[in-house]
Write a structure and sequence with these properties.
By secondary structure, the protein is α+β, with helices and mostly antiparallel strands. The protein is built from 14 helices and 10 strands. Helix content is 58%, strand content 17%.
Length: 397
């Protein structure tokens, strides 16, 4: 019952001095909202990074890393063709491998009438578009006739339409890769990745790419397993087989996405903690503001405290009264900060194009911490009120 009375008196006091209460809460609101928003945006950025680097769970890329001795004896070892068609057939014969996706990339001169630029030309095999989660905005995807017939069809990124075609319609148009004409059949959706991945690239069937560049090289290979659980076994068997066939020791490897994901998580966690700690300083500043206002409130209500004590209120009850008022003040600040923080995180994520992962523990922790600020910085004013001499307090003007 006494607690209810303390809450009622605290709300009455805060309502009586509305403007002062609002100004006092601003530091708490900024601190809580900043921490919640920073953590949510950081976790959303982390999720986006992991998605960009890892892709689907049952896809992994195989790469070739020449030894130092091989590089010293042949400086071109890093740039030479990494995989052969025989290598691809060897990987496809592994039972756990469902599909092998291959590609090759070169930078080349591009021309459309008088407009010219340079860009990455990537030859891809079937399944590349789907596996890498590229989406067609206009036109069509590649079909079997494109892959097996060597059709000179290409899919271009939205950035090329803006740069080479000034944003004009380009489906069905012919552009030149070097001196070789190709026809645009599709346009990709604009990428929303953190690093602009899949930007400024022209995709064409691998067979067409090999004809245009007079090369049979395959520089990138990814494998897809039936299930994510079978992927590790498929990857291990693939690199083991390639190393054995080429008489290499660990030259062929598979990207460890778990390690990359762990590294991304570590980096984003450190950044979130650092930025969140800076934002949390405003909570301390807000707490000091609460303490100052509560000290002013105690001074203003000295006579009220004396009257309550003369009517039988104990020091503990006076302490509780002002402590509850301080806690309620910071609680309201925490609640308003939560609303602003969640709203701000969602707004930033909307415009940035990545998810905002609102963390319930962080929200609860922020509100609880704001209440703790109320306790810590409310103790001094409450203790000052509780230790007043009733006689002197009654005589205070």
């Amino acid at each position: 019952m006494r607690m209810f009375e303390n809450v009622k008196m605290a709300l009455s006091s805060l309502y009586t001095h509305k403007m002062r209460s609002i100004l006092t809460m601003i530091g708490i609101v900024i601190g809580v909202s900043s921490v919640i928003a920073v953590v949510a945006i950081g976790q959303g950025g982390e999720a986006m990074l992991k998605a960009q680097f890892s892709g689907e769970e049952n896809i992994r890329e195989i790469y070739y890393e020449p030894s130092e001795e091989e590089i010293e004896s042949n400086p071109e070892a890093l740039s030479k063709s990494t995989f052969s068609e025989e290598d691809i057939r060897t990987i496809e014969n592994i039972s756990e491998v469902q599909r092998v996706i291959k590609s090759s990339t070169k930078n080349s001169h591009l021309r459309y009438y008088e407009a010219e630029t340079n860009g990455n030309i990537r030859g891809i095999s079937e399944g590349y578009i789907e596996v890498n989660q590229l989406k067609i905005a206009f036109g069509r995807n590649f079909i079997n006739e494109d892959f097996f017939g060597g059709n000179r069809s290409v899919i271009v990124s939205e950035s090329f339409r803006e740069r080479l075609f000034n944003g004009n319609e380009m489906l069905g148009e012919v552009l030149y890769i070097g001196s070789q004409p190709v026809k645009i059949v599709g346009i990709l959706e604009k990428g929303n990745s953190l690093f602009g991945m899949h930007q400024d690239i022209i995709y064409l069937p691998l067979k067409t790419w090999q004809n245009i560049f007079a090369s049979s090289e395959i520089s990138e290979v990814s494998i897809q397993a039936e299930t994510p659980e079978a992927l590790q076994t498929a990857g291990d068997k693939a690199v083991e087989t390639l190393n054995r066939v080429h008489d290499k020791e660990g030259a062929y490897q598979i990207f460890n996405m778990e390690e990359i994901g762990g590294l991304i998580e570590d980096v984003t966690n450190i950044m979130t903690i650092v930025i969140g700690s800076i934002a949390g300083v405003s909570l301390i500043v807000g707490g000091i503001g609460v303490m100052n206002i509560m000290l002013v409130s105690v001074t203003e209500r000295t006579r009220e405290i004396g009257i309550r004590m003369s009517l039988g209120a104990t020091r503990r009850e006076i302490l509780a009264q002002f402590l509850v008022e301080s806690i309620i003040l910071t609680l309201f600040g925490g609640l308003f900060g939560m609303l602003i923080g969640v709203g701000g995180a969602m707004l930033v994520s909307y415009f940035a194009g990545w998810p905002s992962l609102i963390s319930l523990p962080v929200i609860v922790g922020g509100i609880v911490f704001s209440m703790c600020i109320g306790v810590i910085f409310g103790i001094l004013p409450a203790n000052k009120a509780a230790k007043m001499d009733p006689v002197k307090a009654l005589g205070h003007e």
